[in-house]
Amino acid sequence: MDYYIRDVEFPVSSHIMNINVKGENYIFSICNAGTSTSPRPHEKNSSEERSEHSHPVYHIILYTQGRDTFLYKGRIQTSDVGTLMLTSPEEPHSFVCGNPNRRVTVKCFSFRLKNPKENYFLDIPFHEVLSLYSGDKLHPCKFPLSLNKRQFNELSELIDKAVERIVFMGASTLNFDTYFAVLEIFSFLIHEFFSNSQKRNIPVKPLQKAKRFIENNIEQKLTISEIAATELLSPSYFIRVFKKNYKITPINYLLELRIKAAKNLLTSTALKSGEIASKTGFKNIFYFSRTFKKHTGHYPSEYRKLFYNSTFEDTDTAYN
After folding, report:
1. How far apart are CA 302 and CA 295, in angstroms?
2. Spatial separation of the C-alpha atoms in residues 160 and 246, rounded to whole Å
3. Shortest CA distance to 144 belongs to which of 71, 227, 38?
4. What is the second-level CATH architecture of the domain 205-320?
5. Taking a C-beta distance cutoff of 8 angstroms, is the pair 37, 105 a contact?
6. What does the alpha-carbon distance between residue 234 and residue 183 come to, in Å, rounded to a whole number?
């Protein structure tokens, strides 16, 4: 089912969505979001409706059905299925149908950031707002863009998911999952269109934050959701992107690092297997022993006897 929402004020206490610019705090709110068809049955657009307007709102507009035109900064732009348009505050635009006999469906996500103390709305460019959320310096991107099938499907699903969460939760009971659903939309835009590597065509290694997070926390009980959150990605999308770039799933990469660390401790220290299991993130010695054997062909005590450069009495054989 398609939903459409208007004027959703996020709780002031939801610091996740609020941002700070030059010492001033700005509160996030949604102007409108969801699926909309224009013109509606028996409705015709007047010339007045077609004229451009501007306001302190950030628009994400994805055309999902129909073909028509829209106005942006005084120029007529063509809209087709898969056309994505982003506008920043005070940029003149009109997304009203140019041809009243055509019906066009869009998925939109429009928001604003208000300084409650000064009663002022933030009006910096879209890429600068995303830079504040991501912590990375992003480059501007020229819109409209025509999305490929994968991009179209993913962005459609992300907008639907965010809107559904807000509808079902209600504005007064929004929780982290709701904020995360909104941040997933921003993350998609960042990684697909605004990242430095996209703008400069420099082949940099992606997902470095997540990769370093895994490497620095192998002894911790990590979940995919925790790891994906370091890149502001959904778990499923993160797994797909990680595997595409590193030819291994994030969980298998974590396991690979744990086995490597265990090998090092077995051959360079006299620590017992139980201690090594704890230091390398295995939940218990039995799971450690079984997993180590599966990946190396040897139980930990066997591996130590083969590769340790000193001799000592092994006390771990009971678990082999």
Report:
1. 13
2. 30
3. 71
4. Orthogonal Bundle (1.10)
5. yes
6. 9
Say if CB 73 and CB 85 are below 8 A apart: no
Domain covering 4-198 assigned CATH 3.30.420.10 in the classification:
no
All structural domains of the chain with their residue ranges: 4-198, 205-320
Q: What is the pLDDT of residues 124-179, one digit of tens each?
A: 999 999 999 888 888 889 999 999 888 999 999 999 988 888 887 665 556 667 78
Instruction: Choose between 1 and 246: higher pLDDT.
Output: 246
More confident: 311 or 93: 93
Burial category of 236 from C-beta neighbours within 10 Å (exposed 0-12, middle 13-18, buried 19 and up): exposed
- pLDDT for 41 equals 45
Q: Please report the sign of the dihedral spanned by the C-alpha atoms of residue 160, residue 165, residue 166, residue 168.
A: positive
Phi-psi region at 53: left, alpha or beta (left = phi > 0; alpha = psi -120 to 50): beta
Residue 239, phi then psi, degrees to nearest 5: -60, -45
How far apart are the C-alpha atoms of 193 and 196, rounded to whole Å? 9
Least Cα distance to 8 among 136, 164, 221 occurs for 164
Cβ atoms within 10 A of the Cβ of 4, count?
A: 14
Asked whether residue 97 carries a pLDDT value surpassing 80, the answer given is no
Q: If we measure between CA atoms, which residue out of 62, 302, 299, 56 comes closest to residue 163?
A: 62
CA 116/CA 234 separation, integer angstroms: 31
pLDDT per residue over 99-132, tens digit each? 767 788 999 999 999 998 878 999 999 999 999 9
